[in-house]
Amino acid sequence: MKIGGLGRVTGSCVESVTDKSHRWTTAFPRVATLVVLAIVLVTSGCSRGPKRTATVASAQLKSNARMVSLLLIMYATKNGQYPPAATWKEELAAYSDGKGDTTGLEFNKALSGKAPNPKDAERTVLIYQTGADQHRSSGGTSFVIGFADGSVQSTDPSTVIWNPK
Description:
Layout: E1 2-3, E2 7-10, E3 13-15, H1 18-46, H2 49-79, H3 88-96, E4 105-107, E5 125-129, E6 143-147, E7 152-155
């Protein structure tokens, strides 16, 4: 027989609600732990913030640009000229056994099929972050640019040499 929904009579004893609440008290610490863990994970992910994420992405892009620049210089040294602009990614992949992530990078078409020229190599654009070519003359915006001497910088595209002589 039930007593007001709080327990039941069995023989001469009354079972209390604590039998049911025992499940709650053992489950509560687990749930609370999961909630705290979720909060910690979410806040630690947010602590990086967009600025740090952008900085990490820029560093990765610079690293990729440095690798690709060096591979292009090695390709040009071996073949006597830079690869054709239309197929530079395929040429580079075949030459380097797939090394060098070209994601987000473009080859300076003005160097397509040309022999490397050490004159002004430190200012001549070899590869650049996608979109930098559209800001050649406007200035004021910084892009990752790999130069014909193998160096890589974040710089204003209007301050570099796009069409070497």
